[in-house]
Specification:
The chain is of the alpha+beta class and 126 residues long. It has four helices and four strands. Strands 1-2-3-4 form a four-stranded antiparallel β-sheet.
Length: 126
């Protein structure tokens, strides 16, 4: 059996953070949802059953949590910072997709959320 591709994902991580261009957003904050899909070769872990042979979900979460705690004006910037932190912390990441959604954004529309999605390739592995 041959593994064609392998991904690790964290779905719908919830944070309260202080991102935004409006002063009120920086004071009161908003709720955010972060989802990640990380392309990572974990063939070794499939055979070994050892966490040291894969990308640890808890360590990935810690990187996301650390970046979400740093206020930013734009969600684009925050999402990119998260990706940069992950690729620097885990150089074996091949690529990743992140979605960052601000729930109930202050834009006068009745909607679940607004946000960004990035698809990045780690230059160190390609």
């Amino acid at each position: 059996m041959k593994i064609d591709d392998s991904y690790i994902y964290l779905d719908s991580l919830r944070f309260h953070a202080y991102h935004g261009v409006m002063p009120q957003e920086r004071l009161a904050g908003h709720d955010y949802i972060v989802s990640l899909k990380i392309r990572y070769d974990f063939r070794k872990a499939c055979l070994s059953d050892e966490v040291t042979d894969t990308l640890n979900y808890a360590a990935v979460y810690d990187c996301v949590k650390e970046e979400m705690a740093v206020p930013g004006n734009l969600l684009e910037h925050v999402a990119y910072r998260i990706c940069d932190h992950l690729c620097k912390s885990f150089p074996s990441i091949i690529s990743l997709t992140i979605s960052l959604t601000k729930l109930a954004p202050p834009m006068g529309a009745d909607c679940h959320g607004a946000g960004v999605e990035l698809h990045l390739i780690n230059n160190k592995t390609e």
